[in-house]
UniProtKB/TrEMBL annotation:
It comes from the Bacteria. This is DUF3352 domain-containing protein.
Amino acid sequence: MSKKLLVFLTGLFLLASLASYVYYRRTVAAVPVDPWALVPDDAVLVAATRDHPTLVRHLKETQVWDNLTTVRYFQGLENTVVLIDSLTGSRNVLMRFLGRKKVLTSVHVTGQGRFDVLLQLPIGSVREYRQVRSLVDALSRDPQFRVRTREYEGALLTEISEVGTGRGITFLNHRNHLVMSPNPGLVEAVVRRLAAPEQPSVAADFQNTDFFRLRDVDATLLINYRRLPQLLGVFFRADVVPGIGSVTSLVLDGQLEMKLAGNKVVFSGFANPETTAGSLHEQLRGQPAQRLRMADVLSLRTALLVHLGIGEARVLRGARPAATTDSLAASINPLLDSLTAGMSKEAALAYLAPASARVSPGRLAVVWCAQPARQAILLGQLRRVVGASPSFERVGSYQIYQMGVPELPARLLGPLFAGFRQPTMAVVGNYVVFGDDAAALRTWLQDVVAGQVWARSPTQVSFLQETQPLARLSVVLDTRNAWNLLLRGLVEERRAGLLRNESLFKRFPQVALQFVPAANEAETGAQYFTQLLLRHPLVGPAVARPQGSIGTGSLLAFKTPLSGSPTLVSVAGATRPGVLVQDAAQVLHYITPENVVAWSDTLAGPVVGRIQRQTVAGRSGYLLATPSQLHFLDEQGRSTPTFPLNLPDSVRASGLSVSPVGAFGAPRLLVTGGGGNLFLYDTKGNAYPNWLPKRLDFNLAAPPLYLVVGGRDVVVVLLENGYVYAFDQQGGVYPGFPISLGARLQSEALAETVGPTLNRTRITVVNQHGERVTFSLAGDVVGRSRVATWSRSSVFRLIPDQRRRSYVVAREEGGQLDLFDPTGRKLLGQKFLTSGQKPVQFFDFGAEQRVYVLTEPGPGKAYVYDRLGRLLGGQPFDSSAPEIGLEYEATTKTYHLYRTIGPELRRTSLELK
């Protein structure tokens, strides 16, 4: 072959390859993979997650994370994560890989008494693809694992198994979309679905719904209610499953959003009605949703309540056969029809908590009637017709009768109320209550007489207030009462698993699943609104509630008045900050961005100075001081090793300055001990030489300024007599210091420029002659200018912004307070009725979003001005603390104002016009 021909063929091959690559990129790869289309049709549950760092944070803040780590499945997952980190030689590899990807996890019943999980992970870049390949290669080299590939219907499957255990995982890479499962059959089912792309996906009914567009959604959950009894059949005995199927036949499938917030997890969304003949939906179609009125007669022993909102009870029973050969039925049917006709609004099945798993739970049927006296007469007539004993048992003012009619509740209310072989009966208020035996009804009535009912329990009332007020079907579970009930209903091999996971199961003792029909259901057959609420009673220090008509936002009402100003702390992945605030009992509380108290820690005294975010020994947390101790609390509010540091008995700390974040070595802690005394410690409690204490001749004008310049510590100290000192870490004075600023000082300093050398570092202060003075750390005054006129009674203060990058100057004289920019231009002025110093804050969110806050402590008012001197909100805000917290959300042009009023922490949103 000639050289020219070889070059020609090579060029042709390269051109064809390039064309194929371009075709792939523009046709195949350009079409995104629909992960829902890969989920096999037999999925019972499909969870979708996206923002995994935020999800994990919410799980930790709601304390669910601690319970999950006790579950064997999650312990295995944790071991897998540790293995991945060790093989890749890095930390948090999986969490970084997940990031903000949309990940689908589906649950499938794969055999008798078995279910498995299918996981889908998208690969978003070449780097991530290399990470996956590197991990597989590392596993193939590890003798503990075996990696092999096989072909299934044209697709290449990779199987990774652990030698000697039989455990493993199979995965498929479909267009950079990983599909994996411990069950190879599920991955094979995905391959079969790929062969028929025209089939509708499991989420076809919800393809236009994207809950992730909404705010604060942690996950979504797709439920196939038609297959749900099949999954529950893996756990529960066969005789329990039909009853579950009767209840779930109200709806076909549904999709819910999940939000984690403090003491609850809320799933809310929509479900399609089940329209097959004989379904619960077909029975109740067109019936009005009802409120749960029977809280007055529901015992606190209730473990499970299945509540139906109905118009007329006859819809539950259906049409009675026209003729019957049963002589008993023929004689009592007219009475039964009359009884059913008098029943309406709501009917429920209630299961009482059994004493042990070996005892059958007491079961009750409760139904509302408009004329209870007439119902009692009809029930008496029914007892006489069947020859039942006229005797009764009295409990308080109520009477229990033996009815003598087997399955009477089912004859009145339909097959959902079957199982009452020898029912007893009592009339309580507007309710007729049937028990499956006298003991259950007696126990229930004793609680009603004693007032041990839902309506008198603050915990239960607050729970019901968070549920939907009107619903067609409500399933309410008390997990603590239901513990023995569940143990009895589980198949034998699942009981040990429930016992192992008791802490997780009882984490949320209050559970409610509700279905609310659409208002125009009769015309359109629209979807049900669905809510699943998991909640534990509020036992913390605060209760959240809306501010009401006078404010937009929310508030937390604490049991103890708040004594400190709110400190805002940034939270990774959250659009709003967290808040630290202390109460009068010296308890420091951390409030999450979702306005929930995540933790509380009792301190030895009030916080002095500012709380500072720092990293100590690789752990992120908060450094703060009380008069007798230095504290470092991690992000869960726990004291870290060596903390708190106990100060000497002679020291009463009045402030804390910390070396800058990121400075060389561990943070250095500079304690102001009152007067002119300074103490310097490391985070292990060691005192630095010549700082035990560093005694100065005059009182400090402000907290010292701690800088690191060119690797050297510099402590800038301003004294009230107008002198400034700069000390090194050994307590020595830097050359050029002290310097005199020509007038007294009553204000802090700002490091406008921190350069590589002392000479190129600039510090600015304002003295009491109204002069702005800038000096270098070489001891040279490099700038001096007058900001405003002064008098003997005027007080000047430099007010830095929240990031300490810019500043304004405040001048107070009598009740007059004026603000100036550094050039001397007056920004605003206000006359106050009260005398005394007024705290001033300056917030700089950009040139167009500058805010000035003037607080008048006497009447407890905070005046919030924008950059043009306009009062935000049109009036001052109530505030009992010297300072407020403020954040600006640029996307919505909204200010979020945090302030304390007595025992309340309030968050108010102010939108800019």
